[in-house]
Design goal:
The structure holds two protein chains of two kinds.
Chain A lengths: L1 H12 L2 H22 L7 E6 L7 E3 L2 E3 L1 H11 L1 E4 L3 H9 L5 E5 L3 H7 L9 E6 L4 H39 L1 E5 L2 E5 L2 H14 L7 H29 L3 E6 L7 H31 L2 H6 L5 H27 L10 H25 L3 H19 L8 H11 L4 H12 L6 H24 L3
Parallel strand pairs in A: 1-4, 1-5, 6-9
Antiparallel strand pairs in A: 2-3, 5-6, 7-8
Helix pairs in contact in A: 1-11, 2-9, 6-8, 7-8, 9-11, 9-12, 9-13, 9-15, 11-12, 12-13, 12-15, 12-16, 13-14, 15-16
Chain B lengths: L8 E12 L2 E12 L3 E5 L6 H9 L6 E6 L4 E4 L11 H11 L5 H11 L15 H13 L5 E5 L7 H16 L3 E6 L2 H7 L2 E6 L2 E6 L1 H8 L6 H11 L3
Parallel strand pairs in B: 3-7, 3-8, 5-6, 6-7
Antiparallel strand pairs in B: 1-2, 1-4, 8-9
Helix pairs in contact in B: 2-3, 7-8
The chains are: A alpha/beta, B alpha/beta.
Chain lengths: 449, 239
């Protein structure tokens, strides 16, 4: 077998253009896909649970907000999926039917209205998200941040008006109602006027205790009022707070995900194109019949091709990861886990490539078939749940599970970062695919001669 | 048709059957070839010539019948050059010698380069050689393991007259050294000229096994018109 391996390496060396394409093309595709991933669907599905009692008016600082209109506007920007209770909202998120769930608590209106009072309480909306992959997690975060920023902006404008009113009282004086009790505020300007008068009338060393006491009381009240203003100003910046809960799975960072995607795409193209082309070459060169006429068995030939693919996959993927280290920080202490992930992915892709190569008569046909199959599978494997209808997403899941891309991506994510998916499950999946495609390739070789 | 008796049979084929789906490619084909003999297998397209050679070579299984080789190995030279065009002549010979488990690879390669007169082209990529030289490399690979029986599937196809002459000179030399040669061809004159015996296949059946003179007698045509005798022979038998 080593002579066949040596021969294949020699053939690759003699085809520098092909070898260069095998390295450059996957990197170009990886970059393109990376850019494509930065965009998201225009109208994501989000479950909406509204626990606010129906008909509750929202009045902030004397101005009434149009809650019905606000809801309509919200559901114009996202696809609102109504949820009747928290369990239903959670299930929708866990199943991937929706990108996330927005829970408006029953005390939302009460707390919103308190923002314009002297005892403000920040309202909190709950957000349930399913961050099964980092792209989806980022998409959900961006959408919810965008929605809440709009709401916060509108409310904060109203609160700013109220704050200006309070500051006016502090300056010019007036009446203030706090906990049902009325207070008369002197105002800084009046206080200044009084002090000027007192100063002029006071005999040198005389007793002006009563007037001074007023000034002292005002000072105390002014300080307290300024405290209220501080609270108000704090609420202005972010009136509504978000309590985010991840209800399904942790996920690695977006950087790790991007690296895993790039590495998997590299692994996929290098391995599949090499193995499919190399096997088809045996037929194109008419060498297959000569080889299997007692020199090597078709099974040994198949194993040699898969070994060639795994070797190339390991070399190219490690080279790529080493190159990426120049731009991002990799967890090299997990290097020992990278190897089984790459080998398992390489073996599954190589077996897949052998099945393609066995089904074609020549190298060009094998390469074309590989591209035609691999690109759609790769794109479909990167579709996050909640961005398409649940039935379609399930169908995509079943379809992509039949190909090595999705488990290879999960294996690499799991190998690159602890927060990634289970490496064991992904490698088991890849082993099963390698076996299945290996058997298919062996069957294809029966009609190869 | 029964196998024609020979003195010392290097290879004996009996009642070979092979079908591809509903199509019967070989139907009870049998023959024997003596050591050092040249058997020419002729027949129209689709007669089963390549199928027969593939089964004898061991690269295709039969549905029924037996193939018995007296001793040694069988070398097979397919119709199209079967080697790696991006390897040099020497690298191809070396690779197949190793795969054949030839004890002394270097000596075997040198011997083949010498026999095929390709020593000066040993460093050339096989794909850059002329058709004739490629066929010589093709045959040299088949000879690396010093087979007792050599199978050549339409070896002269695509060669010019001079290349054909050099090829047959080489093959006749092999037979003279004791190698049994079975070759297929569409060129009836070539079969008569170089074959000690002719085996006529048509629609998977062996219709004739004898020398050229006997074929002419069967067809009722005097020797000299090989093509005419062959066509009449087939026509009289409904092919």
């Amino acid at each position: 077998m080593r002579w066949l391996l040596l021969k294949d390496l020699r053939l690759m060396w003699r085809s520098p253009l092909l070898t260069a394409l095998l390295v450059i093309y996957p990197i170009v595709i990886a970059v393109l896909i990376g850019f494509a991933l930065s965009g998201g669907p225009s109208k994501p599905r989000v479950a909406l649970l509204n626990e606010v009692p129906p008909g509750s008016p929202l009045n902030v600082g004397g101005e009434e907000f149009d809650l019905v209109g606000a809801r309509a506007e919200l559901c114009d920007r996202i696809e609102c999926v109504p949820a009747s209770n928290r369990e239903e909202a959670r299930e929708l998120v866990e199943s991937g039917d929706v990108l996330g769930a927005l829970v408006l608590p029953s005390d939302l209106i009460e707390k919103l209205q308190s923002l314009a009072g002297l005892t403000p309480e920040q309202p909190i909306v709950e957000v349930l998200v399913n961050e099964e992959d980092p792209v989806k997690g980022q998409l959900v975060d961006e959408r919810i941040d965008s929605l809440l920023s709009d709401a916060n902006l509108r409310i904060s404008q109203r609160i700013s008006d109220v704050s200006i009113g309070y500051l006016g009282i502090l300056l010019d004086g007036g009446s203030l109602n706090f906990l049902g009790q009325g207070f008369e505020i002197l105002g800084l300007r009046s206080a200044e006027a009084i002090l000027r008068e007192v100063r002029g009338e006071l005999p040198k060393g005389g007793d002006s205790r009563a007037e001074i006491d007023r000034v002292i009381r005002f000072s105390a009240l002014a300080a307290e009022n300024l405290d209220v203003a501080d609270d108000l100003l704090g609420a202005v910046s972010q009136p509504i707070q978000v309590d985010k809960e991840v209800v399904n799975g942790g996920s690695p960072s977006l950087d790790t995900f991007a690296i895993a995607v790039a590495a998997t795409i590299t692994l996929m193209f290098v391995t599949v194109l090499l193995v499919a082309g190399s096997l088809a070459l045996e037929r194109e060169e008419n060498a297959f019949r000569r080889l299997v006429r007692g020199l090597v068995s078709p099974t040994v030939l198949l194993i040699e091709k898969i070994a060639l693919g795994v070797g190339a996959a390991l070399a190219v993927t490690l080279l790529m990861l080493a190159g990426l280290e120049l731009f991002v920080s990799l967890q090299w202490q997990r290097f020992a886990l990278w190897i089984p992930a790459i080998v398992a992915g390489g073996a599954a892709f190589a077996a897949f490539g052998a099945a393609l190569g066995g089904a074609t008569r020549e190298v060009r046909a094998a390469s074309l078939l590989a591209f035609m199959v691999l690109l759609p599978v790769a794109f479909l494997s990167l579709v996050p749940s909640g961005t398409v209808s649940p039935a379609l997403f399930d169908a995509i899941g079943v379809f992509t599970a039949l190909f090595p891309f999705d488990p290879s991506l999960r294996a690499l994510e799991g190998a690159l970062e602890e927060a990634g998916p289970s490496l064991t499950v992904a490698i088991s999946h890849l082993a099963a695919l390698a076996l299945a495609y290996g058997l298919l390739a062996r069957l294809a070789l029966r009609r190869f001669g | 048709m029964e196998a024609r008796p020979t003195t010392v049979a290097a290879i004996e084929v009996a009642a070979l059957d092979k079908s591809f789906g509903d199509r019967r490619a070989l139907a009870g084909v049998g023959f024997a070839v003596a050591t050092g003999e040249l058997l020419a297998v002729i027949g129209p397209n689709g007669a089963g010539k390549t199928t027969l050679l593939s089964i004898v070579a061991g690269s295709l299984g039969q549905d029924g019948g037996t193939v018995t080789i007296a001793e040694g190995r069988v070398g097979f030279v397919p119709q199209q050059p079967a080697f790696y065009r991006k390897l040099t002549v020497e690298e191809n010979l070396e690779l197949f010698a190793r795969l054949e488990d030839v004890p002394d690879v270097d000596a075997a390669v040198e011997e083949m380069l010498s026999q095929t007169a390709l020593g000066e082209r040993r460093g050339d990529l096989a794909g850059t050689l002329s058709g004739g030289n490629q066929q010589r490399v093709n045959i040299a690979i088949g000879l690396l393991a010093r087979p007792a029986v050599m199978l050549l599937d339409e070896p002269s196809t695509g060669l010019d007259a001079r290349q054909r002459a050099r090829l047959w000179e080489f093959v006749l030399g092999l037979a003279a050294d004791g190698t049994t040669v079975i070759f297929t061809t569409h060129d009836i004159a070539e079969a008569e000229r170089y074959g000690d015996r002719l085996l006529v296949l048509a629609d998977g059946e062996a219709l004739f096994d004898g020398d050229a003179e006997e074929l002419h007698d069967e067809a009722g045509i005097e020797s000299g018109d090989a093509e005419g005798a062959f066509v009449r022979f087939l026509g009289e038998r409904g092919h």
